Amino acid sequence: MAMMRLRREDPRVVGSFRLHRRLGAGGMGVVYLGSDRRGQRVALKVIRPDLAEDQEFRSRFAREVSAARRIRGGCTARLVAADLEADRPWFATQYVPGPSLHDKVAEDGTLPAAEVASIGAALSEGLVAVHEAGVVHRDLKPSNILLSPKGPRIIDFGIAWATGASTLTHVGTAVGSPGFLAPEQVRGAAVTPATDVFALGATLAYAATADSPFGHGSSEVMLYRVVHEEPQLYGVPDALAPLVQACLAKDPEERPSTLQLSMRLKEIAAREAQGLSEGRPPVQRERIEQDRPTSRYTERTERTERTGRTERRTAGTPAPRPRPSRTGGTRPQPPRNTSRTNGRQGTRPGVRTTSVGRRPANPRLLRQRIIVFFVVTLIVALGIAAAQQL
């Protein structure tokens, strides 16, 4: 996470915490890096002076603290201390080292499918804990997700609300971030856990494409697209696209639950980490991998000679089935009792190998030479006989 020096107007001490750096600033206030007397580092959020006297903002700040207290598990930064009655209310949470998902993508580019799925699975589990506490985040987005060494953490519950509450707020308060808001938030309908699922789908699309699935534009344009247009998922890996599409359904009832999302993303993450595609069984992929060309002729032929017969004659092992070729259709497996290598491996078809990797004369070539020898000998004999008769 980027840090900045303290400014002249920034406090140096808040409560029992000494402040060291600025971590960021938002509509409600400034977040600082601080530490207590034992050296424990915290992220300390202080309301801006001009808002500290506004009861609406104090209430919103109190909601954030209340939400942080109710949520259990490691999905969020643990609340350490708070003072809601101070001239400038503040609260401190455990400091989470690591960049935000937004900064990670901005600096390093899009993430691979396996990493996107892994982050999504952890966030889904985190949202299960958030929703079990009766809280809806309402502003889940890449900048509110920190990638710590122990896994992603959800932060900033400044506009969190109880499940079922309306998203409408008084003038001057934010309701979320365009491009990651759910359609029901735009319409002012009740928020539910499905609201956060929509935002998570948009966040995963961003991690995979470095862009919002609803593009760019003014707030009005973005909100219109969220409600009336389909998301653009070009660039989202095929393994993730259907699930992200389901998360971004306009109707909250059609979106998967956070538990379903977590389980599905774990499966995708495991499969993608192994390099296996959706439609190809693991065994078939292993066979195709073994069939790829290699210049290590001796190693391959020795392995074929030693293991070919043993593997195929193991008791209870079914006969090998035809496997798909790169051009479609099928091609038969090699005969069980052969030790010949595939002609595409850079060797001549029909060459036999020994257990020590040496290549004796080619039997076919030897037969051809014998035939040529006999033919030439016969022609010479006939020529001699014809000369003697003259």
TrEMBL record:
The residues that cross the membrane are 370-387
What sequence ranges are listed for the domain Protein kinase? 17-265
In terms of InterPro entries, this protein maps to: Kinase-like_dom_sf, Prot_kinase_dom, Protein_kinase_ATP_BS, Ser/Thr_kinase_AS
Q: Name one Pfam family in it.
A: Pkinase
Residue segments, region Disordered: 272-360
Compositionally biased tracts (Basic and acidic residues): 283-314
Domain of life the protein comes from: Bacteria
Look at the named UniProt entry and state the broad enzyme category this protein falls under. Answer: transferase
UniProt entry keywords in alphabetical sequence = ATP-binding, Kinase, Membrane, Nucleotide-binding, Transferase, Transmembrane, Transmembrane helix
Q: Does the keyword GTP-binding apply?
A: no
Which Enzyme Commission number(s) are on file for it?
A: 2.7.11.1
A molecular function (GO) held by this record is:
protein serine/threonine kinase activity
> Which amino acids does the record list as binding ATP?
45
From the Swiss-Prot or TrEMBL record, give the protein name: Serine/threonine-protein kinase
Q: Which organism is it from?
A: Streptomyces maoxianensis
